[in-house]
Design goal:
This protein has 338 residues and is of the alpha/beta class. It has one domain: TIM Barrel (Alpha-Beta Barrel), CATH 3.20.20. Helices cover 30% and strands 17% of the residues. Bound molecules: S-adenosylmethionine and iron/sulfur cluster. The site of S-adenosylmethionine has 20 residues, from strand 3, strand 5 and helix 11. The site of iron/sulfur cluster has 13 residues, from helix 11.
Length: 338
């Protein structure tokens, strides 16, 4: 029997390009206690009414259906996921869903110091904390909140609670990130954190993205390599979005999510559920599947599963950021779930 046939004995979510989907990113809120300049406007952000946002029960029901079809990995995000009350309870419930093997969280870290232990006790191990600058003033400029020290305390609390891996995400924006690169490389060398630079993508609320504002992977690597030589790492999970590099002297790793300069769409294994219950098959999708409508109209698990299978089959081949006909999604990153 062929290997494919053997694998197909298990239900699978597969798209029309042959990619298997096992990763679901769940946005638990579109609200946030920061206003990062590349993500949200300073004022006037309109958020979903609370009634629009999926309840824990609805999220768990959808995850149960997804897991029965092959979803194994979850990541909770937002908005800022830690502003959603009792998030640790959701994590505990999700960890109990049969088939779920891995749960991660992406946070801005403001509320992490006070929640790290409860999150750990609920089963969370894998955490990504976004830190765009190691200079408190620059940090306050880009996030529009003066909370650098709270975020650092959050990282330390995650470490103390025993979370691992801890990844630090930092935006890679020309004119801002250049002078941060070596500081972050040093952090990756000295702390038990993998630092990952994320190329700036056209997903902000203000229409200010330009290709020249992306600080690309090659330039980041060159600057670090000149001081601390690096070598690429073949990750066990070749579908992880970051290209990973280790310091040749053995001190830590850095990653780069080069969505713009080196798109990884061919290996994409993920779909996204927005806080208001829409399924998106790409960050840059211009169509969505209304899962909330199904959940709230009493659809059976079978019907919800069929909608998921259909949406996955129609997953886009890739984003079109670098194409002249690129259409920016109507939602910002915070309303999609980054
Ligand atoms: N609030 C949490 C946080 O900041 O980590 C989770 C949600 S946030 C949308 C997730 C990640 O998306 C963050 O690391 C953030 O820096 C990144 N992000 C937001 N807008 C982006 C953009 N236009 N281009 C690249 N990354 C972006
Ligand atoms: Fe909030 Fe995260 Fe967007 Fe910053 S990147 S405004 S922390 S959702």
């Amino acid at each position: 029997m062929k290997r494919e046939a053997l694998k197909s004995e298990k239900p699978r979510l597969i798209d029309s390009f042959g990619r298997t989907i096992n990763n679901l990113r769940i946005s638990v809120t579109d609200r946030c206690n920061m206003r990062c300049t590349y993500c949200m406007p300073a004022e006037g952000m309109v958020f979903f009414d609370r009634a629009e946002v999926l309840t824990f029960e609805e999220i768990v029901q959808f995850v149960r259906v997804g897991a029965s079809l092959g979803i194994t990995d979850l990541r909770l995000t937002g908005g800022e996921p830690l502003v959603r009350r009792d998030l640790h309870i959701l994590i505990q419930q999700l960890a109990g869903v049969e088939g779920i093997q891995d749960i991660g969280l992406t946070t801005n870290g403001i509320l992490l110091a006070e929640q790290a232990q409860a999150l750990y006790d609920a089963g969370l191990r894998r955490i990504n904390v976004s830190v765009d600058s190691l200079d408190p003033e620059k940090f306050a400029t880009i996030t529009r909140r003066d909370v650098f020290h709270k975020v650092m305390a959050g990282l330390e609390a995650a470490e103390r609670a025993g979370m691992s891996p801890i990844k630090v995400n930092t935006i890679a924006m020309r004119g801002f990130t250049e002078e941060e690169i070596l500081g972050f490389a040093q952090m990756a060398r000295e702390k038990p954190y993998e630092v990952r630079f994320i190329e700036y993508m056209p997903l902000g609320a203000d229409d200010v993205w330009e290709a020249q504002k992306v600080l690309p992977q090659d330039e980041i690597l060159e600057r670090i390599h000149a001081v601390w030589p690096l070598a690429p790492v073949e990750e066990a999970d070749s579908r992880a979005p970051a290209d990973t590099f280790r310091f040749l002297d053995g001190k830590g790793k850095i990653g780069i999510i080069a969505s713009v300069s080196h798109p990884f769409c061919d290996a994409c294994d993920r779909v996204r559920l927005t806080a208001d219950g829409k399924l998106r098959t790409c960050l840059f999708s211009i169509t969505e599947t209304d899962i909330k409508a199904l959940l709230r109209s009493g659809a059976t698990d079978g019907e919800i599963g069929d909608a998921l299978v259909r949406a996955v089959w129609n997953k886009e081949p890739g984003h079109r950021i670098n194409q002249p006909d690129f259409i920016k999604p109507a939602r910002t990153m915070s309303a999609i779930g980054g």
